[in-house]
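Design job #97: recover the sequence.
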């Protein structure tokens, strides 16, 4: 890991699902206004698959897909929290919920608004985040 990255950990509410993520410094996260993100308060920190590690709880995850079925919404079947998922915009990466990180200490993350209600018009803005 280089000096312009930091390792962070997080998980679900009950602790059954735990993950680690390598976050670039600085990084940008997206506060999306689509139906599912607005209802759950999900703030997207999209990273390449190589920057994400599921530490525990794989057997505790349950999956929900809707619309195109590309996005893999993964929830803890114990507490119901979606701490990360495989996003439609970046099916080769992960979107970690910034609100599910244990700490923001040492992170340099700017949160920007993302118009997910008009996803088709805006999705290309996110494609580079899992590179």
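Job complete. Output follows.
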């Amino acid at each position: 890991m280089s000096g312009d990255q930091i390792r962070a950990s997080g998980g679900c509410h009950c602790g059954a699902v735990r993950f680690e993520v390598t976050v670039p410094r600085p990084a940008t996260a997206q506060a999306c206004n689509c139906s599912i993100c607005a209802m759950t308060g999900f703030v997207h920190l999209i990273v390449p698959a190589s920057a994400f590690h599921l530490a525990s709880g794989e057997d505790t995850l349950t999956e929900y897909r809707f619309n195109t079925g590309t996005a893999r919404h993964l929830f803890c079947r114990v507490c119901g929290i979606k701490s990360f998922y495989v996003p439609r915009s970046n099916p080769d990466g992960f979107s970690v919920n910034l609100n599910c990180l244990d700490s923001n200490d040492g992170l340099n993350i700017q949160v920007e608004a993302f118009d997910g209600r008009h996803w088709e018009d805006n999705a290309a803005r996110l494609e580079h985040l899992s590179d």
